[in-house]
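lol ok so funny story. i was supposed to be doing the assay writeup but got distracted and ended up predicting the structure for this chain instead. priorities right. anyway since i did it might as well share w the group, maybe its usefull for someone
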Amino acid sequence: MSSSCEQIISGTIIIGTEFEHVEGYICVSNGIITEIGEESSDTGTIIAPCFVNSHTHIGDSICKDPSLGKYDGGRLIHDLDSLVRPPDGLKHRILRSTPYHALVESMRGTILDMITTGTCAFADFREGGVVGVLALKEAIGTLDMENLIFGRPDRPDAQIEDVLGEVNRVLRNADGLGISGVNDMDSGMIRKMVEYVRGQKHLFAIHAGEKDRTDIEEALSLEPDMLIHMTHASKNDISMTADTGISVVICPRSNFTTGVGMSPLCDMLEAGIKVGVGTDNVMLNSTNMFAEMEFLSKVFGLDNRQVFKMCTLYGSQILGLDGLGSIEKGNKAHLMILNGNSNNLSNIQDPLNGIVRRARPDDILSIIRA
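and the output, tada:
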């Protein structure tokens, strides 16, 4: 064992990019994993990489209990547009009426919640133009959380010169452009914005196929870095996405909550698409990635190793966050230490299966962050 270790952590390690488990120890120095060794351990702890939440809207933290629709004969009738479609969906009306300091504090609370529940990085679609982006940056502040911010213009219906001017101001402070969908804005305006973003060498992401598939082909034609949702993607849509190498981020609990259906995830994976996972709108769901994993494992019936990859390694790869999402020598030490002897996790036979199918935030003993 190296004498240069600043910190040594022992237990059952979920190791490498295939997430096998070994009994051993991890050396950490200057926030980097410098050594991984095998040795017997009776600590009862499980050491796993932290989550990457690949799609959030944490501005929604200001309203966490909206009405999801109307009841008709005891059955809830969902109306996604009335909740989230710009410019006058419920969330947008609430955001416009929320004081800046209240918005910052609510987002900061959600970031702290992500940190304590095992997430080390997130990618947010930030409404509100450059002011919205700056509010999120202030909320993050000095918190130890890696992030990507996808901003958007506050008034996309303005004159092209004004819109591009705001896009320019957004991109000075954000990592890329993230828009709600091609059906929500003028097509020509979207293409002008995307052309500008590409010229600035920033990222571009877009929602597609959430409510229906009418916006998927045009979204694909924009050649985004990632597509969000793809809930209603056809086999042809999936084939086209795979051929272009575009990644997809799904939000299963959110799609279930809004009643739009379930993404054809198994078809995506079979086609070779790299898929990440996000918790989406905070007003609909918490940012608890354990809940997302359990949902994926039990509802989709996916292999637990595949689920864990999507919530960690694949998210880091899609977002270009090197050194995250797996426990390997040279990677950043973003680690969850879980209590394998908790009342919930005791007697599990396979630590990875246990984490994916039943672990909860209260099973976390500590978080180690680079």
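The domain at 7-50+325-368 is CATH 2.30.40.10 (Urease, subunit C; domain 1). The longest strand covers residues 20-29.
back to the writeup now i swear
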